[in-house]
């Protein structure tokens, strides 16, 4: 916002200087702009001194400003260029390589494979995944280029006159591998969920996760199975007939239902033979 500044010159100083020099003063209002280089004599009061030199004019203006007790303006400076302006740290980080954390043991815990038909989208999302892994405290390695998958198809151009003419199509799939080493299970799940939420268009993801347990992992799995047995009994009972179950006793009743006969293509009901 432009601000206007005014320079006040005491009447006594004007009268004293007018008696020494033949000076004519012209008072014209002026508005100073902060975007233009400022000078000491560019103020709201402009004057014309005929018989005085440039040094005397400057001395007169300095003495007038000092009499009022105001501070002198700083000397003019060169305007700033775009190269002199520093960008914020977050913006600078986008132009630099993503930061990485050093693993302690180097044991792989997660392999994330990215696939896409566009190399530009793939490289962009791989960079995004590495930055997210750093801020979640995961040591990430990659992206490692994997061999391309090339698929080709040959189809005829038409079914009548162009039947002998064929056309070839090709599709290339580029892949990148990002490996997490010495990562915590909770942090890995959070990282994969974050990437799934902010998935980039045209980029597919496939993750292989390894979890480490104690030596008695078999006993722990048996204990978990016993806890889940009550919930699984009702679900597993629908897959097969039990030897002494209620469904086996009502087998003929289920088969002779109208919807069952319509599904199997039978019309006449089946009769249970008595031995």
From TrEMBL:
Residues 111-208 form the Small ribosomal subunit protein uS10 domain. One of its GO terms (cellular component) is ribosome. Pfam families: Ribosomal_S10. Residues 44-53 have a biased composition (Low complexity). GO terms for molecular function: structural constituent of ribosome. The keyword S-adenosyl-L-methionine does not apply. SUPFAM superfamilies: Ribosomal protein S10. Residues 23-84 are annotated as: Disordered. Keywords: Ribonucleoprotein, Ribosomal protein. One of its GO terms (biological process) is translation. PANTHER family: 30S RIBOSOMAL PROTEIN S10 FAMILY MEMBER (PTHR11700). Belongs to the universal ribosomal protein uS10 family. This is Small ribosomal subunit protein uS10m. It comes from Cadophora malorum. The lineage of its organism: Eukaryota, Fungi, Dikarya, Ascomycota, Pezizomycotina.
């Amino acid at each position: 916002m432009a601000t206007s500044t005014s320079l006040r010159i005491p009447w006594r100083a004007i009268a004293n200087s007018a008696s020494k020099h033949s000076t004519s003063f012209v008072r014209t209002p002026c508005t100073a702009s902060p975007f233009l280089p400022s000078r000491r004599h560019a103020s709201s009061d402009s004057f014309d001194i005929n018989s005085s030199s440039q040094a005397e004019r400057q001395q007169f203006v300095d003495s007038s400003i000092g009499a009022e007790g105001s501070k002198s303006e700083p000397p003019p400076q060169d305007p700033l260029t775009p190269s002199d302006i520093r960008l914020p740290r977050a913006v600078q980080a986008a132009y630099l390589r993503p930061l990485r954390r050093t693993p302690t043991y180097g044991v792989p815990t997660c392999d994330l494979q990215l696939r896409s038909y566009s190399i530009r989208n793939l490289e962009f999302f791989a960079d995004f995944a590495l930055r997210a892994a750093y801020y979640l405290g995961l040591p990430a390695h990659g992206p490692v280029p994997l061999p391309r998958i090339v698929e080709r198809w040959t189809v005829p151009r038409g079914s009548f006159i162009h039947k002998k003419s064929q056309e070839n199509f090709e599709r290339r799939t580029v892949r990148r591998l990002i490996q997490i080493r010495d990562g915590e299970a909770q942090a890995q799940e959070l990282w994969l969920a974050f990437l799934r939420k902010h998935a980039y268009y045209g980029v597919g993801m496939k993750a292989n996760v390894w979890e480490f347990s104690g030596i008695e992992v078999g006993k722990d799995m048996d204990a978990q199975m016993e806890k889940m047995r009550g919930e699984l009994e009702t679900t597993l009972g629908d897959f097969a007939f039990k030897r002494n179950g209620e469904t086996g006793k009502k087998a003929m009743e289920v088969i002779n239902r109208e919807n069952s006969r319509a599904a199997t293509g039978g019309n006449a009901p089946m009769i249970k033979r008595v031995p």
